[in-house]
Amino acid sequence: MSTENMVPMGLDRKEIDDQILDLLRDGRNVPSNLADDLGVSRQYVQQRLQLLEAADYVRNIGRGVYELINDPRE
């Protein structure tokens, strides 16, 4: 199993998803910037964004830019 897809020690998927949603509350963003801010791989953030998009929480507005459309925590 590749370590690229593993969650960093001390973090779980919900925590990462919450952090992604928090960052998207501040405005639109791309996976590479989110990954840098969170200290995880771009590929991992992309996977989480795809799942959040499938759940209709975020939307890819084009060219890999994502925005928050429905925060499930509210």
UniProtKB/TrEMBL annotation:
The highest taxon in the source lineage is Archaea
Q: Which CDD domains match?
A: HTH_ARSR
This protein is called Winged helix-turn-helix domain-containing protein
